[in-house]
Amino acid sequence: MAASLRQDGEQSGHFVADRVETSRLHLRAFTPADLDDLHLITRDPEVMRHIGDGHPLTRAETERNLTKIICAFQRRGFGRWALVRKETGALAGYCGLSLGSEEVGVELAYLLAKSEWGKGLATEAASATLRYGFGRLGLGAIVALTRPENVRSRRVMERLKMKYVGDGNYYGYSCVWYSVSRDEWRPDGSLYRVTR
Ligand SMILES: CC(C)(COP(=O)(O)OP(=O)(O)OC[C@H]1O[C@@H](n2cnc3c(N)ncnc32)[C@H](O)[C@@H]1OP(=O)(O)O)[C@@H](O)C(=O)NCCC(=O)NCCS
């Protein structure tokens, strides 16, 4: 499915990422010009507490991550979108799908600037991402992993009606595992528009 998306983009000679519009957000591909705005988010220890080894990122580390995000998106035809507030044009964070290990499969990922927590934006972006993954990419299931103590992230998974599957050790950390299949999932009727 990623291959067919890549071919769609290649028909016009170069890869063109899908964009998604929700009520309050544009989900668009990242570019290198997002570095400073992304680093404003990733340098915050509270945002990074449950990611990797939990340290806030330097500008150089953020740049490496941004390059990986951009390359993965171009290679697979899907990935993590930049979340841009429609009202202000500000970068609010990211949300999208990443390809985990063979055991994990396609994984939902999200991260918001601290100033954007508590507004329902992660759930809004993640819901559109699931809709895209099932509807546009034809995925059979999407998983989400987080540290057991990352209560805010677990609440997002629960609001999305993802099911708790169990605990395990993934990427070297103990995690809780949630999952939803295409058959179980229902879109919520909120604004969702895919463009190129
Ligand atoms: C995980 C994370 C994205 C969750 O963000 P969040 O703001 O708590 O989640 P949502 O965007 O879904 O917002 C839900 C909250 O907004 C409130 N809210 C306000 N307006 C709302 C609206 N219009 N619609 C829905 N919820 C709304 C909800 O009541 C809920 O509040 P609560 O936290 O008091 O229960 C955020 O904490 C984060 O970026 N953490 C750091 C990165 C991270 O850990 N990522 C996950 C790695 S696995």
Shape: globular
Please name the CATH topology: Aminopeptidase
Distance between the termini: 17 Å
Secondary structure: helix percent: 25-40%
Mean pLDDT: 93
SS class: alpha+beta
- The tally of domains stands at 1
Subunit organisation of the chains: single chain
Radius of gyration, rounded? 16 Å
CATH C-level class = Alpha Beta
Count, helices = 6
Bound molecules: coenzyme A
Order of helices and strands: HEEHHHEEEHEHEEE
* Strand arrangement across the biggest beta sheet: 5-4-3-2-1-9
Beta-strand segment tally:
9
CATH superfamily: Gcn5-related N-acetyltransferase (GNAT)
Low-confidence blocks of residues: 1-12
Secondary structure layout:
Elements: H1 2-11, E1 19-21, E2 25-28, H2 35-42, H3 45-48, H4 59-76, E3 80-85, E4 91-99, E5 106-112, H5 121-135, E6 141-146, H6 151-159, E7 163-170, E8 173-181, E9 193-195
Antiparallel strand pairs: 1-2, 1-9, 2-3, 3-4, 4-5, 6-8, 7-8
Helix pairs in contact: 2-4
The structure holds coenzyme A.
Coenzyme A is lined by residues 47, 50-51, 110-112, 117-123, 146, 150, 152-153, 155-156, 159.
Describe the structure.
The longest helix is centred in the middle third of the chain and has 18 residues. The N terminus is likely disordered. The chain has a six-stranded antiparallel beta sheet with strand order 5-4-3-2-1-9, with helices on both faces. It has a three-stranded antiparallel beta sheet with strand order 6-8-7. The two termini are about 15 Å apart. Helix 2 packs across helix 4. The chain has one domain: Gcn5-related N-acetyltransferase (GNAT) (Aminopeptidase). Strand 4 and strand 5 form a beta hairpin. With about 200 residues, it is α+β, with helices and mostly antiparallel strands. The protein has six helices and nine strands, in the order αββαααβββαβαβββ. Coenzyme A binds next to strand 5, helix 5 and helix 6.
